[in-house]
Amino acid sequence: MPVLELRGLSKSFGGLHAVRDVTFKVMPGDRKAIIGPNGAGKTTLFNLITGIFPSSSGQVLLFGKDITAMPSHRRTAMGMSRTFQITSLFPRLTVLDNVLLAIKGLKPSKFVMWRFLSSYKEVYDKAHRLLEQAAFLDRANTEVRYLSHGEQRQLEIVLGLASDPNILLLDEPAAGLSSGESVEMTKFLMRLDPKLAILLIEHDMDVVFDLASSISVLHFGQILETGTPKQIQTSQKVQEIYLGTG
């Protein structure tokens, strides 16, 4: 069963057709990328998948269940997680504290003022496990403001894993990174659980071609072509429309 399936998903803003009849599947463990020029509708598509925008038509299915009208928090509870282009971390708190807040924020009970933080053993254990898996444990007590931009982007993905998702949607994880930081980001993403499905939007083609096994090209809200990195690289249609050649 697909982790995520889109069936004829569309979104119009008045006379503007931002997303048109998008259909595809993401299977467990897939690494799928969506590329396209600015204004192609990539972020709008993510907003439809995650429930930020209501769709005009079509369906979004998570593990075969129709979630098209479901609010974002219920999609998260079902196993969907997303990061955004702009980081939303607490810069004066430590890396560990940011992860603890992300984990605790997903639970029905919240932190209690008169209870020692160290008494939340299951929360601490999970935070340490996430940091260890991401090779971030050595920076657990570092304040976020002292991390590089690339490290902050990686930490935000760690926070996205706090809900134990089955599918992770990454909105331009390499945005604003130097070439060296982009390489580190790619290595970081490759270390994630191979059973986790990843769907990403990205402009950095090195990241896309190194990470994704399947790439869909979005053009004026429509899927222009889908294929392997090699097929997309050599596609005349993609080169003419997306890369501006020919």
Mean pLDDT: 90
Q: Assign the CATH class.
A: Alpha Beta
The strands making up the biggest β-sheet line up spatially as: 6-7-8-3-9-10
CATH structural fold name:
Rossmann fold
Number of distinct beta strands: 10
Q: In percent, how much strand structure appears in the residues?
A: 15-25%
Helix proportion range = 25-40%
- Tell me the CATH superfamily: P-loop containing nucleotide triphosphate hydrolases
Structure description:
- This protein is of the alpha/beta class.
- The protein has one domain (4-241): 3-Layer(aba) Sandwich (Rossmann fold), CATH 3.40.50.
- Helices cover 33% and strands 24% of the residues.
- It has a six-stranded mixed β-sheet with strand order 6-7-8-3-9-10, sandwiched between helices.
- The longest helix has 13 residues, at 121-133.
- The radius of gyration is 19 Å and the shape is globular.
